[in-house]
Design brief:
By secondary structure, this protein is mainly alpha-helical. It is 56% helix and 7% strand. The longest helix has 41 residues, at 158-198.
């Protein structure tokens, strides 16, 4: 598959969602008994209703689609918690709020498949969008503080990092070139100063 040049050095959103579903666990409440399954990467727990069980996100979503389980909403994916996080994000010069590394992908997957397991899913959807926009604005402001040695932005999620990576890589390369040119100019001035002293 041929991708446009900006996407060749990054992961696609679908790939990031796939990674999130494979590496994240979620609690479910099974509706039917299911014996443990030996899979390539894991063994599923013995599912017995109404006991909660922790399973990979992909399995929880699959069981939800098959109406064999309900998802238990992560604590951070509630209206109250998202409102608090959004309030923190819009405070000028505040750090990024602590969210799971794959928060955006997890929220999207749960909202797409299991919105009926959430309280006020439409409000959660709007809060997630507002939170994402606030964090994107903050990331753009953070890129303005870029220097030749580093960029410090703690608590960014994988999707957010992936979105700014192409611009960041180009900007960092340009800043390094400018800094290298500045260093060469400084060395030339020092050499000329040494020649003046010798003369």
């Amino acid at each position: 598959m041929s991708l446009p040049p900006p996407l060749q050095s990054t992961l696609t959103p679908a790939e990031i969602s796939f990674i999130a579903e494979q590496t994240t666990t979620i609690q479910i409440i099974p509706r039917a008994r299911l014996s443990p399954l030996e899979l390539i990467s894991t063994t599923t727990p013995d599912l017995r209703p109404p006991q909660r069980a922790e399973v990979p996100l992909w399995l929880g979503l699959l069981l939800k689609k098959q109406r064999r389980a309900s998802l238990v909403c992560p604590g951070w994916l509630s209206v109250e918690r998202l409102e608090v996080l959004l309030e923190k994000e819009v405070v000028p010069e505040s750090p990024f709020s602590e969210l799971p590394f794959r928060w955006l992908e997890i929220a999207q997957a749960i909202l797409d498949v299991a919105s009926d397991d959430l309280q006020q899913p439409d409000r959660i959807r709007r809060l997630i969008q507002d939170l994402r926009e606030a964090r994107q604005g903050k990331a753009r402001e953070g890129l303005a503080a870029l220097n030749e040695s580093s960029l410090q932005m703690d608590n960014l999620g994988l999707m957010e990092i992936n979105e700014i990576r192409p611009f960041f890589a180009k900007a960092m390369d340009q800043i390094r070139r400018i800094a290298a040119g500045r260093d060469e100019d400084d060395e030339e001035e020092e050499d000329e100063g040494d020649m003046d002293i010798d003369a």
